[in-house]
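Narrative of activities, Objective 1.

The group set out to show that a structural description can be obtained from nothing but a protein's sequence at a throughput compatible with the screening campaign. Below is one input-output pair from the validation batch, recorded exactly as produced.
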Amino acid sequence: MEKIFFSSEGIARIIGKNGLMKKKIEKNLDIKIKKNEDDSLMIDSKDKVEEFLLRYFLDAITLGFPFNIAMSLIKSDKIFKQIDIKNFSKNPSRIDVIKSRVIGKEGKAKKTISYLTATDIMIKENFIGIIGEAENVHSAEEAFLKIIRGAPHAHVYKFLESEQKRRKEIEAELEEFRRKIKK
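Output recorded for this entry:
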């Protein structure tokens, strides 16, 4: 049994309206969740590996990821990375500038990074959440860090396009290698 602390808003997201999200989580993961008075949840799981992954799943849910995307953290090889924007500045106006740059005009930066890295991205308050395959999550994280540090968006997109091209070349080489092995 593990005790995990969340904000009251995070707990509300996990419990859901009329407890529906909690029931859905318990049913799909074969666990029991109990809310404590101190803004914590007690998680009872038979599978310790799943209990470990559950923390990332719950963090993704509290950040606003849809259930099925958060569930991919447990049911597939996807990983979750969270970036706290406040780690890069204590100045509230600078944090607002960083958030604006990370999101981009009409959400363009977030959407472009998500598209070029084949990741799911959620930005809430001072946090950026990324879900996807490990290498793609790493590329998205690098892109956001470049933007946070002030790199022009165009340079970041060019970096991601070259990463995307490199991944495709590696995949093609692997596929060719697999074909040769089968012969």
